[in-house]
Amino acid sequence: MKTAVVTDSTAYLPKEVLERLNIHMIPLSVVFDNETYKEEVEITASDFYEKMKESKELPTTTQPSIGMFVQLFEKLSKEYDAVISIHLSSGISGTYQGAITAGNMVEDIQVFAYDSEISCMVQGFYAEEAAKMALAGKEPKEIIARLDELKETTRAYFMVDDLTNLHRGGRLSGAQALIGGLLQVKPLLHFADKVIVPFEKIRTRKRAMNRIVELLAEDAAKGIPYRAVIISGNDEEAALEWKAELEPQFPNVEFRISYFGPVIGTHLGEGAMGLGWMKK
């Protein structure tokens, strides 16, 4: 059985990785003043953050249409017997459900939709693993079983540097935003039951980042090899500095650098920082 792998743009996988592993990407979109841009296709992360600074209104985000999924799956059916479609958490987007609906509408190809229950490059790790197994000729059910195994070791934490977007998006009251800003509160967030929820409230950026490192250390102490990714909201320099600090501390962890692109950046804002990991 020949299996294709699909993921959505919020995995923020580099173009080189998509091409090398033959991963097909379907984009979500961000909307500024009724102008819609497909992320990773029509707008870059850096352009997005510049545009967001200039915009009076917080942009909105949209998932891929069912038609986009159907078109992609039908195209893949000409060459593949099955497709594993890996998406951002169903608790924050209907993209995964869209893949299921479209999969039921196409013929000549089996569609296995997979809910990563997370997003960003950690979601990309699932897509990479699936693609390597697909290229090695593994069956879809074997690939999904492997993804489920990895999910048990997957953790990710995000620090919001500026509360403005959470406030503008209606997720934080004006009073909370003001007080949080005065106290330098940096909400530490994570995914639980498929949605983003507060993990801890920490007073400063440095303490928040140190807390994330403590959580990584708990897992790294097990001695098994991990893959990890440092994710920044338009601050690659800070991400590279953090990577340089962490690599000597955790020789059994392979670190990479990524970013919060337009769709996720809409909610977390510029300056956000995250760290996610799973076993190799």
From TrEMBL:
Transmembrane segments: none annotated. InterPro entries: DegV, DegV_C, DegV_domain_contain. GO terms for molecular function: lipid binding. Coiled coil: none annotated. It comes from the Bacteria. It comes from Perspicuibacillus lycopersici. This is DegV family protein. The keyword Electron transport does not apply. The keyword DNA damage does not apply. Keywords: Lipid-binding. NCBIfam families: DegV.
